[in-house]
Amino acid sequence: MNEVINKLGQEYVSVDLLEKLVYSHDLAVLPKFVKPLFDTTPVAIVRPKTTEHIAEIMRLANEYRIPVIPRGGATWGFGGTIPVKGGIILDLTGLNRIVHFDEKNGLLTVECGAVWEDIMHFLRETRWKLPTYPSSALSSTVGGWAATGGIGYGSLKYGPFLKNVVKATVVLPSGRIVVVDDKSNPNLSQLFGSEGILCIFADLTLKLIPKSDVEVPFMANFSNFANALMSAQEVLRLTSPHSLVLKAFGFVRTKDYVESDTYFFGCVDGNRYEVYKQYLTLDNIVNRYRGYLVPEDEARREWEERFYTLKIKKWGPSILGNEFIIPTHKILDMVKYCWQLGNQAHLDVEVEVMFISRYKALMFQLFLCDERKSLRYLMSAAITKKVLDAAIKAGGKPYGYGLWNFQFMERAEPEKKRELKRIKRMLDPWNVLNPGKMIEVRLRLGFPLPGKLYSMFMDGMWFLRRVM
Amino acid sequence: MFILPKLHLENVFACAQCGYCVKKCPTYYFLGWESASPRGKIFALKEFLGNGGKLDEQKLRKLGKPLSTRIFNCTLCGLCKEVCHTEIDVLEIWLKIREILYEHRLVPQGVIKLSEIIQQSKNIYMMDNVSRTDWVTYTSADVNFKDSAEVVYFVGCITSFSGRVQSIAQAFSSILNSMNEDWTLLKDEWCCGHPLVLSGGIKEARTFALHNVEMIESIGAKKVVTGCPGCYIALKHEYPKLLGKKPGFEVLHSTQLLNSYITSGKLAVPKADVKLTYHDPCELGRISGIIQEPRMVLQSITDTFIEPKYFGRESICCGSGGLLKLVNPYLADNLAQRRYEILTSTNADIIVSACPACVQTFTQTATTMQDGKRVIDISQLIAEQLSLI
Questions:
Q1: Integer-rounded Cα radius of gyration of chain A
Q2: Do A261 and B87 touch (CB under 8 A)?
Q3: Over the stretch B83-92, which tens digit does the pLDDT of each residue have?
Q4: Which of B354, B356, B374, B352 lies closest to B365, judged by CA?
């Protein structure tokens, strides 16, 4: 570490015990019994201030074969920023400057640690806006979203984040700094969503869109999920909203509760006439499916609350969740299955479906549980595996793999896995950049964790959960 | 409508680790390390707590000191509570953990010293408490020391002892006189005990609550008014908890009383041709919810009232909260400078606040920055407009 300190300076490096503790996790809670399997404590945390700092760390990591784990806002829940064999955590939140704003062409270059909310604030005084942003925009970073999928609000109308990036400066595992775009080798789409195992995004040039004349939020309530879903699909067929999110709750712990209300919300944007026309169509569709549009101020409140997707956690106090992409015609089956699992495990469920096209949606399900009951929590964790099994069977795939979902990649995207392995071997022969994630997981002692064994263990846990 | 299951909200474990508090935290803004952020501290606390919410004494011994440094590198401004995804009362957690650290003698040395000073001298400045009313002589204020009165003016340590802000007391006294209030100062006012609560010394704070309540009740006052948001919180919210009963008087902040004078037509303040901006003290605005009253008072004085960036519930700390000035003066100065720059960027002629600690801090910052910007308390502004001082 002395060499790192010498090159970067003492103020950018921490080996403090408490610091190491608080950097050893992301959004999800590691079950107590699983923690000893990995070495989740980093040897140091480094806060680079420049791209050159990142490159310097990567060069040293190669020289000394130390793992480097890039970390943005740490708002992802699949263990992507958790060290599995110690190493250096690169906290990239200090790289948060606006590098260049091309106001004429609507192009904005920002450093990887810039938080989405800050970019929105910056654009407030301009005639441009972001085409798409994540549901965790109040704390997640641009680089983090590039590494972990890039589907969020606005993706329905303007496409995923990848489609809205012109180029990026990345640091490769060797420490080489390169600019990548659609035509480079490796290209942007190969590196996007690679969960920090292929490169570290240093800065990105975002494509902006002109601000709309009007943005009208909407929210529609329904008495059951099937009607809400059919109505949403009809809305997608006949209008083109900026975003459309369907939400349903299933509380199994209340005695008098049978089936919860369901609602969807979103926003339509564009010119005044177009938005007015779309809103009328929306109203028609909602009425046809026996729902009703709530008053605009209520809809606006819901829209403004769109970043608060984990509010329900306070009733847990813990959650077990997963995200996956699913064909829209399978949504109803998946939601019913989640209800069924919730009933079997006696866990409350929240389901959120964010449509990303007429044919595909990002589904997010949360089961409320209690991490303080360690064994029960570990057994309950198996529920997320059951959901993903069903999602893959239905033609879906996990939204991310990280540490927890690695076992599903072979089944869900075998070709992508092979391609990632090939590029990883080429770019990172010493496997120093975020090792033990996505394409393979290794335990503390260096043994690989076979996906099948992990899968059998989780099935066993689920069996115990059901009988206990 | 669905009915949520009735569960106990387990504060620390309910944290979603979403990080919405991270970027907002004024301390994190300067330090940048996760452990300085509310999210980081909550995660660390979770590691210290075993099942059933019991503290792991072994871990506390090992990591108690570094944890204490982080817990006291906090202004207790409450912005983390404001943005919390799962609506956790984060402020309550910070105070509770300070109490635990205090019990284990793990609080910073300066905090222990402050606690001893307060207990010994009954004020935060280690002055002879008899000199608490010396400001009356210095400022030639016209005050009362009655055995019975309707209103008690609770001055507080900072306003009583700090030369920079003693004129706030002079100004407010003159306003009370001009309104013909039946008011008095306490003959033996003690520190309100709020700094002890912030230190974690809850038991010690109780003695102070008992004394002050006894003094006020012996006068038979119906109202207690204070210009200090810290004293306001102590009198209004902490005393009932510390004493287990609600004292028999109403507690008001000076801005509430001033606003009631103005809205009832009792007080007419001549308009001033001056540009004003207002800094919401954290303990008054966000924590106590007194946001509109000071604005209504200021808007009655000027037509050019400019809101700074971050105001009302989103206001950011001046750096003097949570004992930060005592524990980490360098960090406190940085926070003060950041907020001061935001306030001066409004190009207002005068920066107004409603807290002696904020006024004191910004006055000091203005001197350091050498830009001659005037910083005053709302009471001073009104008294000046009425030519009372």
A1: 22
A2: no
A3: 998 989 999 9
A4: B374
pLDDT digits (tens, 9 = 90+) for A170-218: 999 999 999 999 999 999 999 999 999 999 999 999 999 999 999 999 9
CATH 3.40.50 fits B268-385, yes or no: yes
Helix count and strand count (H, E) for chain A: 15, 19
Is the Cβ of B309 closer than 8 Å to some Cβ of chain A? no
Which residue range is the domain that position A287 belongs to?
214-398
pLDDT of residue B97 exceeding 70: yes
Query: Which range, A106-110, A223-227, A314-318, is most confident?
Result: A106-110
CB A79 within 8 A of CB A381: no
Residues A54-75 have a mean pLDDT of 95
Q: Do residues A40 and A25 lie in contact, with contact meaning Cβ atoms separated by under 8 Å?
A: yes
Shared domain for A308 and A293, answered yes or no, is yes
Beta carbons of B86 and A73 less than 8 Å apart: no
Considering the domain architecture, whether residues A361 and A438 belong to the same structural domain is answered as: no
* Contact between B35 and A22 using a beta-carbon 8 Å cutoff: yes
Q: Which residues of A touch B18 (CB under 8 A)?
A: 27, 75, 136, 138-139, 310
- Chain A residue whose CA is closest to B40: A22
* Complex ipTM value: 0.93
Asked if residue B279 lies in contact with residue B357, where contact means CB atoms within 8 angstroms, the answer is no
Percent of chain B with pLDDT over 90: 85
User: Is residue B32 less than 8 Å (CB to CB) from chain A?
Assistant: yes
Kindly report the average pLDDT of chain B as a whole number: 93
CB contact under 8 A, B35 and A371: no
B111-259 sits in which CATH class? alpha beta
- Which positions in chain A touch B4 (Cβ < 8 Å)? 251, 254, 315
Q: Which residues of B touch A94 (CB under 8 A)?
A: 32
Q: Is the pLDDT score of A256 beyond 60?
A: no
CA distance B106 to B94: 14
Instruction: Indicate the domain borders of chain B.
Output: 26-107, 111-259, 268-385
Asked if B192 contacts B205 with a C-beta cutoff of 8 angstroms, the reply is: no
Q: What's the pLDDT tens digit per position in A114-151?
A: 999 999 999 999 999 999 999 999 999 999 999 998 99
Nearest chain B Cα distance for residue A139, angstroms? 5
Number of domains in chain A: 4
Residue A21 lies in a domain: yes
Instruction: Round to whole Å and give the CA distance between A140 and A134.
Output: 8
Interface of A with B in 223-252 (CB under 8 A): 249, 251
CATH code for position A225: 3.40.462.40
